[in-house]
Specification:
Strand content: 15-25%
Structural class: alpha/beta
CATH topology of one domain: Rossmann fold
Radius of gyration: 19 Å
Oligomer: single chain
Distance between the termini: 48 Å
Largest sheet: 9 strands, mixed
Number of helices: 13
Bound molecules: S-adenosylmethionine
Shape: globular
Helix content: 25-40%
Order of helices and strands: HHEHEEHHEHEHEHEHEHHEHEEEEEHE
Length: about 300
C-alpha cells in the first residue's frame, strides 16, 4: 500500500532528501532477530542448538540478540522447539533498546506500565536475573493473555501481572505511598516505525489518531512520574517517528515536572531528538533523546528517552 500524502509530507519535513531512503526501507523485509533468554539457556548453548538445526547464526550489535540468516518457512521461528521451551524471544533489535537504557538490576522494584505482550518485560526480568519485582500492567485482556503465556514460556518468576488503566494504577499506588525505582512507559503509539513488519499501520494512519495518542501519552508519562521515587529512572519509548508522540511528550514532562533528560549510549546508530517541529520549539534537553531510524541500522524505527526525577 502506498503511504498517505500527509504521512509522506511529514517524513519529508523530518528527513528532507533522505526520505527516499526511508521509504525504500519500508518496502524491505525485516531481519529475523531473536533475543537469547538467559533465564533458560546460555548464549553459547543456544547458538550450538540452532546451528545443529542447520540455521546460520550471526552476531548483532547487541550481544544477547542474534540474527538468523537462513531462509526459514513462514512462522518457523515461532514453531521451533527452542522457542516453545523459552530459549529465545522473537524481538526486533530496536525494541531491545529501552530495557538496556532502563538498566534493571536484581532486587529493584520496577513498573512496566504498558507491558503486553511482554517483549520488554521478559527482557527486564532476564536482566534482573529473576530477582526483585516487576509489576507488568496492561489495559487489554487479550494482550495480557499473550503476556502471561510469554512470561511462563520464558521462566519469568519475579513479575506480578495487573490489568488496569496505567493512569489509574499509578495514581492509586502513589496515593498509598508506593513508589518505584524504575518505570518503563512503552507507550501505545501510531507505530510508524513498524510499517515494515505490519502493512495495516499505513491503513490506520491519520493525523487525528496522532493527536489523540499524543494527549494519552502526556497523561501516561505524567502519572508514571508521580509514582517514581525521587532520583528514580523513567524510560519513555515508542515505535513511532512523529514528534507529537515523542519530543513533544518529553517537552511536556520537562515543563510540568521536576525531571531532566539524561544522555544515554546505545549499541545502535541513533540521532538526537529534534527541537523544532511545525512552529514549535522544544526544550533543548530533548536533544538527549534518541531517534532510531530504520535506514540507520536496518531495523524498525524507535524513539527512546531516559528521564531522571529530581525530586
Ligand atoms: C507498544 S505496546 C507495548 C508493548 C510491550 N511493552 C512489549 O514490549 O511487548 C502498548 C501497550 O499499551 C497498552 N495500553 C494502551 N493504553 C493503555 C493504558 N491506558 N493503560 C495501560 N496500558 C495501555 C496496549 O494494550 C498495548 O499493549
Amino acid at each position: 500500500m502506498e503511504p498517505k500524502k500527509l504521512f509522506v509530507e511529514r517524513i519529508n519535513a523530518l528527513l528532507g532528501e533522505e526520505s527516499n531512503i526511508f521509504f525504500d526501507y519500508t518496502k524491505k523485509l525485516l531481519k529475523k532477530i531473536i533475543r537469547v533468554n538467559l533465564l533458560k539457556i546460555s548464549r553459547q548453548d543456544l547458538i550450538e542448538k540452532l546451528k545443529n538445526k542447520g540455521w546460520e547464526i550471526q552476531n548483532t550489535a547487541y550481544r544477547d540478540a542474534l540474527e538468523i540468516k537462513s531462509k526459514l518457512l513462514p512462522g518457523q521461528l515461532g514453531k521451533a522447539l527452542e522457542h516453545h521451551l523459552g530459549y529465545y524471544y522473537i524481538q526486533e533489535l530496536a525494541s531491545m533498546m529501552p530495557p538496556l537504557i532502563l538498566e534493571p538490576k536484581a532486587g529493584e522494584i520496577i513498573l512496566d506500565c504498558c507491558a503486553a505482550p511482554g517483549s520488554k518485560t521478559t527482557q527486564i526480568a532476564m536482566m534482573m536475573k529473576n530477582q526483585g519485582t516487576i509489576i507488568a500492567n496492561d489495559v487489554k485482556i487479550d494482550r495480557l493473555k499473550a503476556l502471561v503465556s510469554n512470561l511462563e514460556r520464558c521462566g519469568v518468576m519475579n513479575t506480578i501481572v495487573t490489568r488496569m488503566n496505567a493512569l489509574t494504577i499509578c495514581k492509586k499506588l502513589a496515593k498509598s505511598g508506593f513508589f518505584f525505582d524504575k518505570i518503563l512507559v512503552d507507550a501505545p503509539c501510531s507505530g510508524e516505525g513498524t510499517i515494515r513488519g505490519d502493512s495495516t499501520i499505513l491503513k490506520m494512519w491519520n493525523i487525528n489518531m496522532i493527536k489523540r495518542l499524543s494527549a494519552l501519552q502526556k497523561k501516561l508519562i505524567s502519572s508514571a512520574i508521580e509514582c517514581l521515587k525521587p532520583q528514580g529512572t523513567l524510560v519513555y519509548s515508542t515505535c513511532t517517528l512523529t514528534p507529537e508522540e515523542n519530543e513533544s511528550v518529553i517537552d511536556f514532562a520537562l515543563k510540568n515536572f521536576n525531571v531532566r533528560v539524561e544522555k544515554i549510549k546505545l549499541p545502535l546508530k541513533t540521532r538526537p531528538g529534534i527541537v523544532k517541529w511545525q512552529g514549535q520549539t522544544f526544550n533543548e534537553q530533548v536533544k538527549n533523546c534518541h531517534r532510531i531510524w530504520p535506514q540507520d541500522n536496518n531495523t524498525e524505527g524507535f524513539f527512546i528517552a531516559k528521564l531522571r526525577k529530581i525530586r
